[in-house]
Amino acid sequence: MAKVTNLSRVRKQRQRDARRAAADENAVRFGRTAEEKARDTRAAEDARRHVDDHQLERPCPDDPSSDP
User: Fold this and answer.
1) Are the beta carbons of 49 and 55 closer than 8 angstroms?
2) Cα separation of 24 and 19, whole Å?
3) Does residue 45 contact residue 38 with C-beta atoms inside 8 Å?
4) Pick from 11, 26, 30, 43: CA 20 to 30 A from residue 56's CA?
5) Buried b (16+ CB within 10 A) or exposed e, 9-28
6) Which tens digits make up the pLDDT trace of 4-15?
C-alpha cells in the first residue's frame, strides 16, 4: 500500500529548506567571524586614539580658569 503524504507538510518543509539555504549563502557572503569584528574594533580604537593624541590643545574661551 502507498504511503500517505501530507502535501502541506512537504511544501512547508521545502520552504524551510530554501530559507535555510539562502541564510547559509548570506552567512558566507556577508558574515564576519568574531576575530574579524574584534580586529576591526581594535583598529578603530587605535585610529581614534592616534587622532586624539595628535590633537592640539587650545584653551576654551568660555573656561574662566584659562584667563591669564
Assistant:
1) no
2) 9
3) no
4) 43
5) eeeeeeeeeeeeeeeeeeee
6) 899 999 999 999
* C-alpha atoms less than 13 angstroms from C-alpha of 7 in its C-beta half-sphere: 0
pLDDT in tens, 7-42: 999 999 999 999 999 999 999 999 988 899 999 999
- Report d(CA 50, CA 36) in Å as an integer: 21
Interatomic CA distance for residues 48 and 42, integer angstroms = 10
> What is the C-alpha to C-alpha distance for residues 13 and 7, in angstroms, rounded to an integer?
10
Residue of 30, 47, 28, 50 lying closest to 39 (CA atoms) = 47
In angstroms, the CA 24 to CA 65 distance is: 60
Question: Which residue type does 54 have?
Answer: H
